[in-house]
Amino acid sequence: MDFAPYIRDIEDFPKPGVVFKDITPLLKNPFAFQKAGEALLGFTSNMKIDKVVGVDSRGFIFAPMLAEKLGAGFVTVRKSGKLPYKTISEPYDLEYGTGTLEIHSDAIEAGERVLVHDDVLATGGTARAVCKLVEKLGGEVVQCNFLIELTFLNGAEKIKEYQKEVLLQY
C-alpha cells in the first residue's frame, strides 16, 4: 500500500525552515492505519522480541499495538521529567534542538530482545539515544522501525549498527 497520500506536510513547524511530516491523516483513516500497523509488524516476521520501546510521543501510537501482536511488553521512553519511577537518561540532538530522554530503570532486563519504534527517523539523535538506553539496561536492540525516514538528514548513519526498517522515505 502507498502510505504517502496519508502524510501531510506542515511548513515552518515547529520552527521556520522545518517541514513537519504530519501522520494524523493516516491515523484518522481506519484502513490506512490498520495497513500501516500490519506493514510495521511485517518487518519483524520470524523475530523473537521481548519488549517494544515506543518513543515519546508519536511512537506511543504503533508501539503498543506491535507489542500486543508480538506477545511482548511495551516500554515507554519519555522526555526528561515525565516518568514517575527511577530512571536512567541519555542526552540527544534532534533536527531543531537538544533534549534528554529517560526510561524506567527496571523497564528492560539483561538479555531481552528489543524492538525500537518511532514515527520519524530524522537526524537519528533520538533513535540513537533510545538504543543507548536499551543497551545501558542490558537489552539487545534487534530492530529500529519507523513510519517515515527523512533521508536528507542522514539519521540512518547514527544507527547504522542496528537493523532499520521504514515504511516511507523522503
From TrEMBL:
User: What are the alphabetically sorted keywords of the record?
Assistant: Cytoplasm, Glycosyltransferase, Purine salvage, Transferase
* Gene name linked to the record: apt
Name where it's found. Answer: Cytoplasm
Q: Does the keyword Transferase apply?
A: yes
Oligomeric and partner information: Homodimer.
The GO cellular component terms are:
cytoplasm
Recall the GO molecular function terms of this protein's record.
Answer: adenine binding; adenine phosphoribosyltransferase activity; AMP binding
| NCBIfam families tied to this protein | apt, PRK02304.1-3, PRK02304.1-5
Q: Gene3D superfamilies from the entry?
A: 3.40.50.2020
What this protein is called in its record is Adenine phosphoribosyltransferase
One GO BP annotation here? AMP salvage
Q: Which EC number applies?
A: 2.4.2.7
Domain Phosphoribosyltransferase, by residue range, is 43-148
Q: Which reaction does it catalyse?
A: AMP + diphosphate = 5-phospho-alpha-D-ribose 1-diphosphate + adenine
Instruction: Family membership, please give it.
Output: Belongs to the purine/pyrimidine phosphoribosyltransferase family.
* Highest rank taxon of the organism: Bacteria
